[in-house]
Amino acid sequence: MWSVKNSYKNRFESSFYSPQSLSLFLSPKGKAKGFFDSTSPENSQNLRIRMGNCVPKPNKSLSEIAPSDFITDTTVRLYGSASSTLISFLRIALQYKSVAVKFVPSENYGLGNSNPILQYGTDTVTGSPETLFRYIEGKFPKPKLFDEFEEDGIEFDGNQGGIAVVVKIQHKCMLYYIENLVKWVEDLNVRGGGNGGRAVVDVSMGSPVMEVRKFGRSYSQLLELMLEHAQMEERILFPVFEKADRGLSKAANEEHARDFPIMNGIKETIKSIGVLDPGNPVYQEQLISLSSKLKTLQEHCEEHFEEEESQLLPLLEATEISGEQQDQMVEQCLEVMEGTHSHLFHFLISGLLPREAILYLSLITKCTTASNAERVNSMLRTLMTRIDSTVCPSSNRKPSQHLLAKYRGTPTTPSIEDGQMEKSDSYKQHDDVYRV
């Protein structure tokens, strides 16, 4: 079992994590679990549910909580401090659940304690972070945010620390975007070669010139993320391995150097396509070249990431760095990957499945010291606003405005029932519709 080690005394006080909730529980098989794996009587007693006029009632287990289908008022009311990290986290979790939230800023939460208060129908819930998230997960089960990762989730080997998890999650995000850019350029190829050499316009993307410009903007975001990720590994992760065994990260460094020219070449090819007439034969040739380069990059990244995850990251425990040092590495990651965790933060989170996103947010929050507390709070608040602008939690929910949404292999307009999105049979597909 991997859990956060040692002292949390220096962790910022605005963090909502208690020493108990800071643990990221792992099953014996090494799969990540969330906040809800502890079922001790103490945690059960923390679940305070009051009905009607706040008259105390006996504690209830989650199985006794009425499912949301039986509650006519589908709006969750949340009371707490607007500057609270926990409040931001709760609102993001509810956004993933497609639940309408009415936030009421309040420094005096009531009920005799300073914990946030969540009201839904006749239920009023307060208590520890585990209590609140446990209630949300039980009341709104789709999509799961804190249960075990399933077959398409992130698997862990041994007692890997937070930095290893961060690296793996970023790998999944980058592979997701590369895959969808490959699909996008293939679609451009098909439409660009039809109709007697004239491009077939996708009206949702605008004119061919507009679409290529949008494609270039999406790739530029991915490129910045990939470059910062490589820099983070070279400055934070690889030195740890080199100190333990000189030359251990040599192959990974060489692969970074190998792929930089390919990544820059893709950028230049996109620029070339952007100034060509879609009816020009060279336009089609450049699209084919772009497709080939992207597929090469995809193959290299899949191979490189697999090698890092199977050969390098499992050795992190053997370096004998402490849990506190690994937490510090996560915080250093935020500083080195400054762009990724500022203007690209929504882009990063949008490339993750809900449980991956929640785990990532949990890690960066718990590993942040007082000096970066306000920055992380700001990141969460900005992310919450961005999600709110692209996701409408109602029966009139708009499809995601993300440019790559149509290349996810899932409908861009998932069906809605009782405020919950309907999942398809395929795991990969049914979780993909929950990306924000």
TrEMBL record:
Pfam families linked to this entry: Hemerythrin (PF01814)
Superkingdom of the source species: Eukaryota
Ranges where the Hemerythrin-like domain occurs: 212-316
Location of the region described as Disordered in the Swiss-Prot/TrEMBL record: 392-436
Coiled coil segments of this chain: none
Ranges annotated as biased composition (Basic and acidic residues): 420-436
Protein name per UniProt: Hemerythrin-like domain-containing protein
